[in-house]
Structure formats: structure tokens, C-alpha cells
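Repro:
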Amino acid sequence: MAGARVEPLGGGDPAALGPYELLGRLASGGMGRIYLARSSGGRLVAVKTLLAEGVVSDVDRRRFTREVELAQRIDSAFTARVRDADPGAERPWMAIDYIAAPSLSELVRSAGVLPGSAVRWLAAGTAEALVTLHGEGIIHRDLKPQNILLPLAGPRVIDFGISHANDLTRTTLTLGTIAFTSPEQARGEPSTEASDVYSLGATLFHLALGRPPYRADSDTLALLARVQRGELDLEGLPKELATLIRPCLAADPRQRPVPAEMLDRFRRSLAGLPVSQDGRRWLPQRWTDLITQYERQGRVLARGAGSATGDTDPEGLTADLRTDVVPPPDSTRVYTRERERVAREQAERERAERERAEKEEAERERARVAQERLREQEWQRELERRKAEEDRRRAEEKARREAAKRERERAEQQAARERAARGRQQAPRASSGSAGMPSRPARPAPAPSAPAPSGKSSSVVGVLVVLAVIAFFVWQNARAGSSDGEGGSGLTSSASPTTGAAGSTSVAGSGTGYEPDPEPTPDADDEAFGAVSTGDCLTAYDDGYGDWSTDTPKTVDCDAADAYLRVTSTEDGISGSGCPGGSGESFWSHVGSVTEFSTTLCVERQFRVGECFVAKHRGDRMTDARLMTVWSCGADTVPKGYDVILQITGRWRAESTYPPGYCSRSGTDAEDYWRFEVNDDRTVLCVRWV
């Protein structure tokens, strides 16, 4: 199927209505006809007009005018909008947005039923359309899968123009399809807002199970009688949908929820699931493929490349826009003995294939373990290299400081010796000014090689030398104290004595003192990892090629759609040996700019219904599932070593045993499912191959 069915225009059809060029017929009924048309600007519209032989009657024109007025009052993202109309034209017409999308009935028929999450997503959009219609006093009266179109942006309700406002004359004519009408409609009673609610419940049941909520019966009158009595057959309805759909199908209209209440229920049921409105996040691949074909056809028609008259387009659409591939013929029948031999050979090949697959799996697991060990060894070597580099830098800095200290002490000792020598040379001049001092014995002092004085002069000289030495030390201490009082050059202590290498005493001056090692400063990556705490959720995931999807962790609210990881603990260093290693669990190590900033985050995957990951398919088993990946469900490629994409259809608390068909969505669901126990075997995932 390549798109919508567009019939060629007939001899009695006009070429245009108003400013719109007619391309073909979309539908015909007893009272009207709908054409596919294109504006001069390339916009596609569905043009509805009355069918009338001769002149249109005043009654029909008034009814059509009223229909236009009702439809123009509706402006919702979940309905088709009226773009233009001319009820007074010779042939009255109304132009509505053409939605290039299949109906729900065609999708179920061609692509199968929906999972519960997708049903709830569709229900929320349709309920919002009913809230808008009922707010304008309009009852649809014909809500069914055929009247709900589904582009990827969300459901669109159509054909509400044929319904009647509450202030119009009521009719007992039932307009809806029997299987989707309410009991009161089937009995010929007036339709109400509750009637639309019942029809929506029946439509949602059809999406989940592929049939109406009544026992199958080819007898139309028998089915009508069941609908009138409300004799439902809800066998197979998934338990996750029963609490949402069952109240809508109450036989008593007063017990059904109103659309606003339904909308609130459906939205609350979607809590914790992806917030995106794009259908690719919700719908199975078969559904999105068919919807994409319709969108492609719409783009072709809007460009004017193809019509219903037989013109072809560059993308290969045919005249009636419906083509399909002829299936290959069945295998030639063989005799029983030959068939048995073929079966044995097939079984042997499958056994050999399983053994080969198991061997490859074991080899791959050994390679993975070896790779992990090698990676950890590389991290350890890198850590040791950085530590050695840091130790070498510290040792060089220490040696530099010690050499500077020795040089400073040597200079101070040399200066002290020079000062002492100058004091000895000045001693004789000082003695000439001290003639009147009393004579007393004095300790001999070092003197030049000249002959030493005798008697009173010798005593005076000795006293003067002692006084000069004492005065020099007093002056030196006063100078050091003054230097400290004026700020100096950053010393941490005031003129405290130090002992030189030769045992002499020197005084600390205003030179450069000992500076402690500066505190290491974390870089941006260190800070990003250091800011993560236990319980935080991260946007990162396994990219399928041996790395995380982001270079540094980014935290988000754990209820966010992109919260793929939850941090279970944080560890110092780069070894993940302390982290759990079960399915859906891993670790993220960061080698810091210095050793103390190295960090390891223990993480577990947060699984959500609708997300996909990659795995390998062997016979009827799924092996080597890469559960930490988040892969596009519609991707055409997978990482090397993998060959399937699995989509999560259910997430439940793990149990000790699982009954047959545990993951099936209904008793008639024939699709294959697989189970994975994850997060320390606390959770079980149901998945299917997409």
C-alpha cells in the first residue's frame, strides 16, 4: 500500500471548486462527495460538496450552511480545520485540511494491534478532541476507527461536521457503525456526550485486540441486538488498559466518565513514559512505515507530481496509488523420505549452528573480560604514570628549595664573617677616644698580626672591642625587626635564628622563605564527575561502540524522558570492582587530572516501555543483549557483532516463575516475546523484535 485511494474524476465532476483544482475523488455518500484538491500555493485540501440533481434545495443549503458554521467553530490540534467555504455557490462546497495519514481501521487491519502505552497515547489525543467538540456544543455521533486519522504528530478526528449541535432538531437515525455505537444510539435514543465516550472506549478496545467489544457474529441484526442490550465480550483486554477502557463501556450513560475526566486519566496513565508527542516514540515499526508512506504520497501530490489520472511521479507512485509485491511461490513438495532426510540435515545444521554460536559467545565473553582487564590495567598504568610524574615534580621542587636554602645560609655566614672582620679593623680607632676609662682586666680578643698594645691601653682596647661586637648585634636585630614591621617579602616568621651548616648562628633577613606546595585544582571534567551524587540520574547511555554517549555526566530529573542511568554509588579511584555487575548495571570511571580527583560512578539502567536496545539472535534465543544501549527503534544499522533491535513492551516486578504467554498483550496475540531480568533481578523486561 503506497497511500490513500484516490479515484479519477468522473464526467459529472467539476474541474475546480472555488480556487481549488480537483485532483480526484476521496469518497462518495448518499448526500455528498469529497474531492482531493490543491490550492494555487500547493496546499492539499479535502473539498466536500453536496450531491444534487438540478438545483440545490433551500433545506439542503441551510443544512450545509449550518454544517459549515459548526465546523468553523472548531480549532484544535486534534481535528481537521476548515480552510474555506462557499455555502451560497451554485454547488455549495467546504474546504478542509487534507490529512495525509491512514485511518486507525486501516492501520489495525494492515499493521496489527497496539501495545498498551501506544493505546493510552492515542486515547489522550482523541479525548482532547472530544473535549474541544463538546465545549462547542457539538456531539460527534459517529466516532469510530474509520473517522480517526493518524499522522505521526498524533490523532486527528474527522467527519464531525455531519454531527448535530444540541440546539438542532434531533433525529433517531443511528449514524455510527453498529459495532462502535452506544446502546442508547442502537436503540434509537438521542445521542449525548456520553455516547461519544462509549464509542471512544469501543475504538480503543479495537486498537488493543483488533476486534469490537462484542462476540463475533455475521448477523447484523443479532449484533445490533447485543449492542442494544450492552452484552460485551471483553476477554483478552490487557489489565493495564481495563481500568481505562471498561468505565467508558458502561451500559448506563450516567456511569461513564466525561471527556475531561477521561483526558485526565489517560494523561496520568502516561506518567513516567516519554513525553514526546511524535508517534515514532510510541508506535510499532509497522505502523510508522505505513504512516510514512501516506506522508510521502501527500508530499508528491502537493508538488503536483502525480494525480489520479494515470500520471506517474518520480518516486514511483502508480495511478491508483496502490501497489504491492507479489509473494514468492511456496517450496516444491518433496516425498516423505526425502523430507525426513532434509529435516535431519536441518536439525544437524541447527545443532552445529547452536554449538558454533555458543562457542562464539564464550570466545566473545572471554575477549570482553580480557578487554575489560586490559582497559583497567591501562588505567592503572596511567594512574601510576601520573603519580610518578607528580612525585618527580615534588622531588625537584624540594631539591630546588633546599639548594636555595643552603645558598642563602652560605651567603649569610659569609656576610657575618665580613662584618666581624670590619669590627676588628675598627677597634684601634675606637680606643683613642676612651682614654679616661678605668683600667681593668679584659678577655683577650682576636687582633691583627701587628704587635699587641700593653698596659692600660690594651685593657681599654679589649673593652671597646667587646662593646663594638655587642652594638653590632643589637643594631642587626633592630634592623631585622624593622624590616618585618614594614611588610618584608612574605616571610611567615619574624627574624628567628637558624643554625648554619658549620654551626654558626645567622639571622633570617628579607629573602625568599619556604613556600608550601600549592593545593591541586580540579579541572572541568573533575568538577563534573565530582558533582555527581548517589541517587542522581544521568543522560548518558552506552553508544554501542564501547563508550558512553557523553564525555562527562549531565544530571537530570529522574522522571525525565532522557534519564537513562541512575547512580547507585560513587567510589574514589578508577576501579569498578566495587560496583554491581549484573544485567543492566555497569560503572563509569574517570581518570582525574591528579590522583585524588579520580572517580568511579556505579550506575544502573533506567528502562522505559517503548525504548530499544541491541542484541544478537541465535535460533529462538536472544544472546549478548547490550542492555545499557539506547538504540533508535527505527534504525537501519546496529553495532558490529549484533543483528537485532529489541523494543521494551512491558516492565514489571520480577517473579520466581512466569506462566506461558506472560508477555503477550492478549489471548490472541501471536507475536514472539523474550524476557530479561535486570537491575539485580528486581525487574523483568518483556521485549519484542522490531
